[in-house]
């Protein structure tokens, strides 16, 4: 595995062995604060347009980024110590997102328009898990989620796990058992590790996020799944680094920091210095490709870096939590 980054002939960070103990902790505080600072400075880019409820509005360019802002920043706040700058900024960003959805009122309108669409419910659940709730939304959602149609909506298994986790967050009875759904996912089936690629990689990471409530409940990961991930995450992460898949690298780091038991220290020490080198001075991280290191206020289009920057903050907060006792004091080094 890798420890520090140089530059390869194509301009990409090139890993260098071996990983040095404590390398992750040396870079994580700055990576986290810089990513959050960029996100905070670009919060207006997450604002919803006036026509967000119109049929022609693209959900993936409007509601999806805002929902991700709420979800990932609520986890950052939960994983960081009260009073720290990152804790406060993350909380402010969740509040901003809540105001954008009219404190839940806009989500109620979406639910009325598309009563069996999962995305309004999942966005709402991100806020509900944070303690922000809307009585009218839940009054309408309660009978809808009790229907046979809701329970039998056809979707991929990892997406179904997301709906189950959303139901848990809202506090209703889940429509099916998470264990049975997990067994139908790429990860739950312990698929041949050489079949890992982009789509299966993202399916894997989100399976873990939904299973663990975005890293908050690591003990939900079954023992055999934990062992499988600890064995193969290093190889998959190396492949992502080699191909410049920074967004997926960040998600794999978040998965590593969401495992039960001791943190996979060698993996975190190997990957974080590389991702720290990819991060631009402004705090943003590109999704893919050769990183820009030249001074520029906005080196990448917002749509090409907002998600990877949020993921970097999310993964950094979880990694810091897994490597410290929560107060910033390093834990004793373990060998997985």
Distance between the termini: 15 Å
- The helix fraction, in percent, is 40-55%
Approximate strand percentage: under 5%
Q: Give a count of the beta strands, DSSP E runs of length 2 or more.
A: 2
Q: Which spans have pLDDT < 50 for at least 5 consecutive residues?
A: 1-12, 327-336
Number of helices: 14
Shape: globular
Question: Radius of gyration in whole Å, from Cα?
Answer: 19 Å
Q: H/E series, N to C?
A: EEHHHHHHHHHHHHHH
Query: Which secondary-structure class do the elements indicate?
Result: mainly alpha
- Mean pLDDT equals 91
Major sheet details = 2 strands, antiparallel
Please give the order of strands in the largest beta sheet: 1-2
Write a compact overview of the structure shown:
With 336 residues, the chain is mostly helical. Helix content is 54%, strand content 2%.
Question: Would you give an account of this structure?
Answer:
The protein has 336 residues and is mainly α. The chain is 54% helix and 2% strand. The protein has helices at 23-41, 63-79, 85-100, 105-113, 118-128, 135-144, 148-151, 157-170, 178-182, 198-211, 223-242, 246-256, 265-278, 306-323, and strands spanning 4-7, 13-16. The longest helix has 20 residues, at 223-242. The radius of gyration is 19 Å and the shape is globular.
């Amino acid at each position: 595995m890798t420890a520090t980054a140089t530059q390869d002939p194509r301009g990409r960070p090139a890993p260098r062995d071996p990983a040095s103990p404590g390398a992750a902790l040396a870079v994580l505080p700055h990576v986290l604060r810089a990513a959050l600072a960029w996100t905070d400075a670009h919060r207006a880019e997450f604002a919803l347009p006036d026509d967000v409820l119109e049929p022609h509005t693209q959900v993936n360019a409007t509601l999806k980024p805002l929902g991700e802002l709420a979800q990932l920043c609520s986890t950052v706040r939960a994983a960081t110590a009260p009073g720290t700058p990152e804790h406060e900024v993350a909380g402010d960003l969740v509040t901003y997102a809540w105001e954008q959805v009219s404190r839940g009122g806009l989500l109620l309108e979406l639910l009325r328009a598309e009563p069996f669409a999962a995305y309004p419910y999942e966005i709402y659940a991100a806020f509900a898990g944070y303690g922000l709730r809307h009585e009218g939304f839940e009054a309408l959602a309660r009978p809808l989620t009790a229907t046979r149609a809701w329970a039998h909506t056809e979707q991929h298994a990892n997406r179904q796990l997301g709906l189950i986790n959303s139901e848990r967050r809202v506090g209703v009875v889940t429509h099916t058992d998470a264990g049975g759904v997990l067994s139908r996912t790429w990860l739950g089936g312990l698929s041949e590790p050489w079949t890992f690629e982009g789509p299966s990689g993202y399916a894997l990471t989100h399976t873990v996020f939904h299973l663990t409530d975005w890293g908050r409940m690591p003990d939900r990961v079954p023992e055999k799944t934990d062992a499988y991930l600890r064995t193969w995450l290093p190889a998959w992460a190396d492949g992502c680094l080699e191909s410049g898949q920074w967004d997926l690298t960040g998600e794999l780091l978040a998965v590593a920091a969401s495992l039960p038991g001791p943190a996979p220290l060698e993996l975190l020490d190997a990957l974080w210095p590389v991702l720290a080198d990819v991060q631009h001075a402004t705090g943003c991280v590109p999704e893919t490709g050769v990183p820009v290191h030249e001074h520029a206020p906005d080196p990448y289009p917002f749509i090409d870096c907002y998600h990877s920057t949020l993921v970097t903050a999310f993964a950094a907060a979880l990694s810091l939590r897994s490597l410290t006792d929560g107060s910033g004091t390093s834990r004793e080094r373990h060998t997985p």
